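Re-run requested by the PI after the first attempt was lost when the workstation crashed. Everything re-entered from the original request form. Ligand of interest: adenosine-5'-triphosphate.
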Amino acid sequence: MHLTKIRLFDFRNFREAEVEFSGGLNVFYGDNAQGKTNLLEAIHFLCNLRPVRTTREQDLIAWDKTKAYLKGVFYTSSGPVDRELLLKAGDRKKVRECGVERHRLSELYWQIHAVFFSPDDLTLVKGRPSERRRFLDLIIARLKPQYGRYLSEYSRALFQRNRLLKDLRRNRTLITALDAWDEQLSSLGAAILRTRAAFTEKLFPLVRKYYLYFSREEREIDIRYAGSMVLADVPAESLREVFLAALRESLPRDLESGYTQVGPHRDDLQFLLGGRDLRYFGSQGQQRTLSLSLKFAERRIFFEATGVYPILLLDDALSELDVNRRRWILEGEEPCQVFVTTADLSAIPGDILKKGRVYRIRAGTVG
Ligand SMILES: Nc1ncnc2c1ncn2[C@@H]1O[C@H](COP(=O)(O)OP(=O)(O)OP(=O)(O)O)[C@@H](O)[C@H]1O
């Protein structure tokens, strides 16, 4: 699968552009603040149907406009697919595939996917637990739309339970309503925990493998799912009861804080090297390598699930890698379409650059 062509209108600092791409390496090159990242974001939005990280969709519209339009033509195993996205201020985005408007976006997730990596992904290691949960949840929900539904129902139930906890401070008789929320939370939470456990079983060995490869360190990284409940050795079918018991046990603390203190919404990932937490004790380089490994593991997981390598979008990421790793990624030992931004073409080995296509980005235009 690869993107053969893109058209943009009033997307970020692009007024109008149409560009054809190579199925291999594509390099967006130019000075700072010209639009290299914006073009990468446009590709990501077309592929994954959501903006990079927590950017709001409306912020993608050019500042002095009220609408933005993107069209991408993809080459997939079932032939060419064209996908259009229309953003309108104050409205939901519209998605059309092969000319037909689509409302259930999860039906479009399987075939086309992109993995975006930039130095900001350091937050996956150094940032708050919610960043790591989001990383897990987005990948799983994409591969299993049912999981996305568990998550949204769980957060609705959690919101109601937290509201009730606060109300209980004023009116104790409301306590009878708590059981119903605990029941809901524990069955949805157990489904989330089960799915995450099955997923991390695949993800963790891959992250370890890429970390070893990228870091050339002798020691393996140890990755753990750091739960807010002790779940080691709990069989999958007992998760609901264990969670329910944990909710009851934490009730005094929950009432005091007004928040539910246990559950998958409090869980985290922990990365240890030589027994020390990389989040606090890792060097900048080790943390960067780990965030890159997480993204490469994501890419591999998609390949294993779908048989198709996602498109790789590397924003200003080459400077972090030595020449051998740049070569490995850009030459494609794991073949896929790659888009790279750089302000310095010498970051790309000359023989590889010759095989790729280079686009000069200047003030929202592509040359
Ligand atoms: N919605 C928008 N409308 C118009 N311009 C925007 C919008 N959002 C961002 N920009 C501007 O687009 C310009 C290009 O940003 P971009 O991040 O793509 O630069 P870049 O070429 O990747 O630069 P760098 O090399 O510094 O990372 C910036 O000046 C930014 O302020």
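Saved to the shared folder this time. The radius of gyration is 23 Å.
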